[in-house]
């Protein structure tokens, strides 16, 4: 794959726990939404194995932003792609954010 021009990388967990929680369907929904919105040239997706946050699955990670999303489903996967250029896309699903060279847990309200 030619990565020239790619601006965002979406890592979609397909480890055992995340698959049980719909990780494969999240990947399909994200990729479908990318095709519909015509952003396949600047967003790349990769299905990963376990990312070590099984209790929060299905996990999706957005880079270079460094944002980890919890409890993803098909609808939130589509919404992530629609909001990918917002300052904090899909803010209600953020588990971890990356600021000042470190990850921090998103405070729930």
Overview of this protein structure:
- This protein is α+β, with helices and mostly antiparallel strands.
- Helices cover 27% and strands 27% of the residues.
- The chain contains three helices and six strands; from the N terminus they run βααβββαββ.
- It has helices at 16-20, 23-37, 74-82; strands spanning 8-13, 43-48, 60-63, 67-69, 94-99, 102-105.
- Strands 2-1-3-4-5-6 form a six-stranded mixed β-sheet, covered by helices on one side.
- Helix 2 packs parallel to helix 3.
- The longest helix has 15 residues, at 23-37.
- The mean pLDDT is 93.
Content-based structural category: alpha+beta
Uncertain residue ranges: none
The largest pleated sheet is described as: 6 strands, mixed
Radius of gyration, in angstroms, nearest whole number:
13 Å
Morphology: globular
Helix content: 25-40%
User: What is the average per-residue confidence, as pLDDT, rounded to a whole number?
Assistant: 93
Order of helices and strands: EHHEEEHEE
Oligomer: single chain
**Side-by-side strand order of the widest sheet:** 2-1-3-4-5-6
Please report the distance between the alpha carbons of the first and last residues. 41 Å
Tally of extended strands?
6
Given the structure, what is the number of helices? 3
Strand portion: 25-35%
